[in-house]
Design goal:
The chain is of the alpha+beta class. The chain has 2 domains: 2-44; 53-380, Roll (Alpha-1-antitrypsin, domain 1). It has 7 helices and 17 strands. The strands form 3 sheets. A 7-stranded mixed beta sheet has the order 1-2-17-16-9-8-7. Strand 8 and strand 9 (235-241) form a beta hairpin.
Length: 380
């Protein structure tokens, strides 16, 4: 009897596993093969999430994304209210990276972002909403996620209180277009694991105007190259295939170094090919590692970050690019709180894991970066 029971349990488990595999590959648009089943198993036992990184210096973990809006609000908090580096006990690497302030608003044009901070009140919320409506014709997603029921109307509430709460907010929004829309490609695979993925591309007989929209940083091999797609608004999309994922800052530095070393053609020729997947994603991140830990301000007051949030929404296709990102930090500050080689053809095919960065043409650092391995996370 026991033997039959064990057999039936094994059969049921096997059937459940088979159904799970079939469901996963059908819904995730995967190509079924022994190799991809093994890759699926490795992903299955990992978290399989899209990771949003607070800083450009943070180490990349699997599919990762970073946008500078969170660093903007964090800079406002440190430079204007805390007035010294944030130190937790024990200190966190992510806090050390944010303290560097590697990215700031000097890497953005004034018309692309808005930031505001002060005492957390309903008046502040209204002011932010009015500004982003006027500047971007936008409403805020992130402010609607917060509980405003116990927030006072005006600054007067804090006049005689030793405990004060502050709000730090930023929004970035950009829309740009390619001078000439790229050619569409029939649905293709990505990394030999994902099928039916939409791409745009340049092939041998594409219009020469499309080639003028591409700058080649370098091409060392079909697994190590980088290009920039140029828009008519003077924005660069930098796409890179590189096997050594570390931090987005290190990847960007490597692209610049390889560009200096590369002595072959930096222009895109009729013998070159380009293939880029359409991307679309909308995500919300809460940086819980930064919340509810006490640290000191320069004046000796104790500070605690109560909420640390960021949204990122972007889309890339044959016609252009769109990005919108918000960030918010809610912080409490009080006098006393308990402490918590030359080749004939070059194939620039972004159909395997790659990195994308966005920068303004006349700025020295990218304001956005993402590393893409699981393409389905970027196919809303």
């Amino acid at each position: 009897m026991k033997k039959k029971t064990i057999i039936w349990i094994c059969v049921i488990v096997a059937l459940l596993l088979l159904v799970t595999i079939l469901y996963y590959f059908c819904c995730k648009k995967r190509v079924i093969s022994p190799w991809n089943i093994w890759n699926w198993w490795k992903e299955f036992i990992s978290d399989g999430d899209l990771h949003v990184l607070p800083s450009i210096n943070d180490e990349i973990t699997a599919d990762s994304m970073r946008c500078g809006t969170f660093q903007l609000v964090r800079n406002d908090m440190v430079n204007n209210i805390v007035k010294q580096d944030v130190v937790f006990n024990p200190q966190l690497q992510v806090v050390k990276n944010l303290n560097k302030q590697t990215f700031s608003n000097r890497y953005l044009s004034e018309n692309s972002y808005f930031s505001k901070f002060w005492l957390l009140t309903l008046d502040l919320k209204t002011a932010i909403e009015n500004w982003i409506k006027e500047k971007f014709n936008e409403t805020s997603d992130i402010l609607d996620l917060l509980d405003w029921s116990d927030v006072p109307q005006s600054d007067d509430f804090y006049a005689w209180k030793s405990e004060k709460r502050y709000g730090f907010y930023a929004m970035l929004k950009k829309i740009f277009n390619f001078e000439n829309a790229f050619d569409e490609l029939d649905k293709w695979q990505f990394d030999d694991k994902y099928s039916n993925i939409e791409y745009f591309w340049i092939k041998w007989n594409s219009d020469s105007k499309l080639r003028n929209q591409v700058y080649v940083y370098y091409y060392n091999s079909d697994d190590d190259f980088a290009v920039a797609l140029k828009s008519k608004e003077w924005e660069d999309i930098i796409l890179a295939r590189w096997t050594k994922w570390n931090t987005f800052m290190e990847i960007y530095d490597n692209i610049l170094k390889e560009n200096e070393k590369y002595k072959w053609k930096h222009h895109f020729t009729k013998d070159d090919y380009l293939k880029v997947p359409n991307l679309k994603v909308k995500t919300l991140a809460e940086f819980i590692d930064l919340e509810n830990k006490a640290f000191l301000a320069a004046d000796g007051d104790v500070c605690i970050i109560e909420r640390a949030l960021q949204t990122i929404e972007f889309e890339l296709n044959k016609s252009g690019w769109y990005i919108k990102s918000e960030a918010f930090i809610g912080m409490m500050k009080a006098t006393s709180v308990a402490m918590p080689v030359e080749i004939e053809h070059r194939y620039f095919y972004f159909d395997k894991p790659f990195v994308m960065l966005r920068k303004e043409s006349d700025k020295d650092l990218p304001y956005f970066a993402t590393q893409i391995s699981d393409i389905t996370l970027f196919q809303e």
